[in-house]
Amino acid sequence: MLTTLRRYARLLLLDSRYFWWLASFVILGDFLLTQLIIHFVPYTEIDWATYMVQTDVYLKGELDYSRITGPTGPLVYPAGHLQIHRVLHAITDAGTDISKAQQIYGVLYIISLALTCTIYRLAGGIPNWALLLLPLSKRLHSIFFLRLFNDCWAVMFVEAAVVAYQTGYDDVGTLLFSAALSVKMSILLYLPALLVVLFKRHGLIATGRHLITLGASNALLALPFLEEDYWAYLRSAFDLSRVFLFKWTVNWRMMGEEIFLSQQWANGLLLGHISCLVAFGLFVWCREDGSVWMVLKHGFRKPDRPAGYAPVTADYIATIFFTSNLIGIIFARSLHYQFYSWYAQQLPFLLWRTRYPAPV
């Protein structure tokens, strides 16, 4: 009996044919854990009330983004955020039915977990047992259904976009990527990876078409606000110069507040971010194609043809998207508590893609 159990355990943990068996157990187990947490752990109010107040201001007819404010400040998210919370506002009785909101975010968490498992499976080469690491984050559960942060929607949409790109549904992927960007501008951290994937897979002209789709779909969603005051919308929803308070950051705290808030430090981080992306572009992301220069030359000489020489595999897509995101996070001046959701489920994948042994 014990021998049989060991054999089945080994198959579940190590045999790729049983990947979805273990994934199903993980998803079901985490669903039950989610319900227990919602039932026994108190909800913590941080931004949900502000989301609802801001949505209420919008529903009363205000279209000037600079005038849509809440208890913790003005609205600083793109129009997709507002449209999602417009629906949630209706479902949760203007945000007062916290229990229903938690159940919605609980389902959102499980969808995100299932999408992560799908990305891992499509990429291949990840041992089944790595899935057991995904439900272990206390903070991730808290971010989703104990705090109800809007980051969760952006994460879910971008994960779905990665799956679409992995399976060759690139037009769908771009629409999903646009949906993610319409919730949080932090999705721009993935943009370098998206450009590389599209350029290598489709070439210059098709990449331009995807970028037009990305911009146009976001503009269409934000059209009422752009017509009212386009500058107020862009300045609020995509303010790249925004400086977060030092007391809330969990990134670069060791530098001290004076250095953290200085323009020199911001410029240094930006330079580091760009330099790291350039290094990966030169030496990693196009290595299988011969060189980045070969890809660029091929892409510009034949703009209607794929620029890459090596196949753009599902593994390549997951790796480059996750890497581009992590590079941006490392060089972000400020990371808040909820920003952990941006990369938490990607860490086991990226760690396995390193050359370090499993115990490390």
From TrEMBL:
One Gene Ontology term, aspect cellular component: endoplasmic reticulum membrane
Catalytic activity, reaction form: an alpha-D-Man-(1->2)-alpha-D-Man-(1->2)-alpha-D-Man-(1->3)-[alpha-D-Man-(1->6)]-beta-D-Man-(1->4)-beta-D-GlcNAc-(1->4)-alpha-D-GlcNAc-diphospho-di-trans,poly-cis-dolichol + a di-trans,poly-cis-dolichyl beta-D-mannosyl phosphate = an alpha-D-Man-(1->2)-alpha-D-Man-(1->2)-alpha-D-Man-(1->3)-[alpha-D-Man-(1->3)-alpha-D-Man-(1->6)]-beta-D-Man-(1->4)-beta-D-GlcNAc-(1->4)-alpha-D-GlcNAc-diphospho-di-trans,poly-cis-dolichol + a di-trans,poly-cis-dolichyl phosphate + H(+)
Known role: Dol-P-Man:Man(5)GlcNAc(2)-PP-Dol alpha-1,3-mannosyltransferase that operates in the biosynthetic pathway of dolichol-linked oligosaccharides, the glycan precursors employed in protein asparagine (N)-glycosylation. The assembly of dolichol-linked oligosaccharides begins on the cytosolic side of the endoplasmic reticulum membrane and finishes in its lumen. The sequential addition of sugars to dolichol pyrophosphate produces dolichol-linked oligosaccharides containing fourteen sugars, including two GlcNAcs, nine mannoses and three glucoses.
Recorded GO MF terms: dol-P-Man:Man(5)GlcNAc(2)-PP-Dol alpha-1,3-mannosyltransferase activity
Top-level taxon: Eukaryota
Pfam family, one: ALG3
Name of the molecule in the record: Dol-P-Man:Man(5)GlcNAc(2)-PP-Dol alpha-1,3-mannosyltransferase
Pathway participation: Protein modification; protein glycosylation
Keyword Glycosyltransferase recorded: yes
Coiled coil region boundaries: none
Subcellular localization(s) per the UniProt record: Endoplasmic reticulum membrane
Species in which this protein is naturally found: Mycena alexandri
